[in-house]
Amino acid sequence: MKGRTTLETDSQRLFHTEAGGQKGGSAATPPQTKPGRKNPTSAGSSSKRKSASKGTEHAALEEEQRKAAAAQAAVEDLQRRLAAVEAALAEERQKAAAADQVLAEQRSTAATQRILRPPSE
Predict the structure, then answer these.
(1) Which of these, 3, 25, 29, 62, has the minimum number of CB atoms within 10 Å of its CB?
(2) Could you tell me if 12 and 27 are in contact, meaning their C-beta atoms sit under 8 angstroms apart?
């Protein structure tokens, strides 16, 4: 009878160990953990988290790169527009200088004609 009690005790321990391992362990059988970790991890969950984290980081990096490229394109477009406006301004300044020169010549001619013309009575 004594042998039977030991068998029952052993089978109960085995049952509790298996059940406890699936539910986080019991006082007699702590959950399986890697050194330095607080919680048990399943075989692939750690690598899945790392992979998902890397995927998220990669997606965020790609988004930042896309935004940076769009911003760079916008800057280049503004630089082209500025160059076009500066060229148009330079052209208008040349036209204004030419118009000033023509106006000055006309005034000079008019003044000369007044001097040469006898006063009318």
Answers:
(1) 3
(2) no
How remote is the C-alpha of 30 from its chain's centroid?
Answer: 45
3-state SS of the chain is CHHHHHHHHHHHHHHHHHHHHHCCCCCCCCCCCCCCCCCCCCCCHHHHHHHHHHHHHHHHHHHHHHHHHHHHHHHHHHHHHHHHHHHHHHHHHHHHHHHHHHHHHHHHHHHHHHHHCCCCC
Rounded distance between C-alpha atoms, residue 99 and residue 93, angstroms: 10
pLDDT tens track for 5-60: 555 555 555 555 444 544 444 445 555 555 555 555 555 566 667 777 888 999 99
Q: Which of 37, 15, 35 is nearest to 26 (CA)?
A: 15
Contact criterion met (CB below 8 Å) for 29 and 16: yes
Higher-confidence residue: 93 or 56? 93
Rounded to whole angstroms, the Cα distance separating 65 from 112 reads 70
pTM, two decimals, is: 0.46
